[in-house]
C-alpha cells in the first residue's frame, strides 16, 4: 500500500483509501504496448514508489475546470488550441525555449479568439511530453542494432549502447523537469507576460514582414478590437492572466499510475502528471492497458483516431471511456491525412452524433501527413497540414456539427523541419536548422500563419 497525498495537495491518503472504490492498478492485467524493455523491473518499482510520495504536478480542481472548458468547446462555445513539441527533451527544457513555445501559443490564441469569437482553451504538449511510441523496437545504423530512442523519459538519443539502455532514473528526471516547466508556465501566464496587448504587439511584428502581407487586414481588425476595448474601459487587469493547461501522451503506465492521487473531496482518482492526457494511435487497443488505465482516472482525456478507425470502434471508446457521457471528458483527436479525412471522418462524426455521445472533435493535421524529403528528412508540407484542417472544417460544416479545436506539433523557434509556408522552405532548406529528435514541427512563423488561416475558417463557423 502506497501512502500518497491528495490530488488537491493536502492530507495524506492511500491508494486503497476507503473513500476511493476505484482500483487504478488493473491495467497491469492487460497487454501494454510500447513499453520500454527495462533491464531491471525492481528498479522501476523503486522509482515508482519514490514518485508516488512526491507532490502532484497539477490539481483536481484545475482538471475539472478544463473538463468544463472542453465541454464548452464541444458545443461551439470555445475553441481548443493544443500545441507543442512531438517530444520534449531535458536539454531543451530551458527558460528561453519554453518561453518561446508559450509565446507562440498565446500569439496563435489571440488570432483564433478573434476568428472564433469565443474563448480559446490553451493547452501545451508540455511539461510531460517526454515518452514516445516507436514503429520499431530497435534501430540499426551501419550494421549496429540498438534499442530505439523512446524519449528522454526512457533512454538517450545518442546512438551508443550505453545511452540507449532504458534507465528508470529518467522517470524521476521527467517529473522534476515537468515540475520546473510548470513553474515557469504558471509564472508566465499569471505574471503579466500574457497581457493581451503585449501578445498583440508581438503579432504586429509578424505581419510587418512583407511575406505575411496577406494577413495584414485581419491583424488590423484585431488591433481595432483591442483599441475599442481599451477605449470603453474594458478591464485589462483580467486580461493580464490566462488559463493554460498541460497535456501529454499517457504512454508509460508505471509513471502515470505513480502520479495518480485521490481527490479528498470526492474519493476519485486523478492522474496528476498533467491536466489532459491522451492515448496514442499505437496504444489505443480497446482491450489494452492504456484504455484500461485512463478509464479509471477523472482527468479530461483524448484518443487519437487514425484512418483505420471505424464508427463501431469510435462508439466503443465512448462506451468504455465516458460511460456517463460527461461533456468535456472525452476528446477525439483525428489524424487521418489530408487525402483521407473527407472520406473517413464523416462516418465517425455521424455515428457518434446519432448515438447522442458528448465528444470534442479536434484535428491533428500533422501525424497523417508525414513524408520523407528527397534529401532524407522526415517532414510535412504546410499545404498538406492546411488541407487536412480545411477538410476537418468542411466535414463538420456539412454535418452541422462542431469543429472543436486544433492539435499541432510546433516550436517557438526558427527551426526548418516542415516544408512550405510563407517562408517557402524547400527540401534543401530543411538542412539549415533541423533539430527535432522525432517528428517535424511547425516553426514560429509557420504556426502563426496557420493561426491566421484557421481564424478565417473559424469566422465561417459563427
Ligand atoms: C504524437 O502525437 O506525437 C504521436 C505519436 O501521434 P499518434 O499517436 O497520433 O501517431
Ligand atoms: Co509526433
Topology record:
Blueprint: E1 3-5, E2 12-14, H1 41-52, H2 60-74, E3 79-84, H3 95-116, E4 120-125, E5 138-141, E6 144-147, H4 161-164, H5 169-190, H6 196-208, H7 216-231, E7 244-249, H8 253-258, E8 260-262, E9 269-271, E10 276-279, H9 289-296, E11 301-305, H10 311-321, E12 330-334, H11 341-354, E13 360-363, E14 371-372, E15 378-379, H12 382-399, E16 405-409, H13 444-459
Parallel strand pairs: 3-4, 3-16, 4-7, 7-10, 10-11, 11-12, 12-13, 13-16
Antiparallel strand pairs: 1-2, 5-6, 8-9, 14-15
Bound molecules: phosphoenolpyruvate and cobalt (II) ion.
Biggest sheet: strands, sense, closure?
Answer: 8 strands, parallel, barrel
Helix content: 25-40%
Coarse shape:
globular
Q: What ligand molecules are bound, each kind once?
A: phosphoenolpyruvate, cobalt (II) ion
Strand content: 5-15%
In the sheet with the most strands, the strands line up as 3-4-7-10-11-12-13-16
Which secondary-structure class do the elements indicate?
alpha/beta
- Number of DSSP E strands: 16
| Beginning-to-end CA distance, first to last residue | 52 Å
Please tally the helical runs, counting DSSP H or I stretches of 4 or more residues: 13
Low-confidence stretches: 11-16
Estimate the mean pLDDT confidence: 94
Task: Output the radius of gyration.
Answer: 21 Å
Question: How are helices and strands ordered from N to C?
Answer: EEHHEHEEEHHHHEHEEEHEHEHEEEHEH
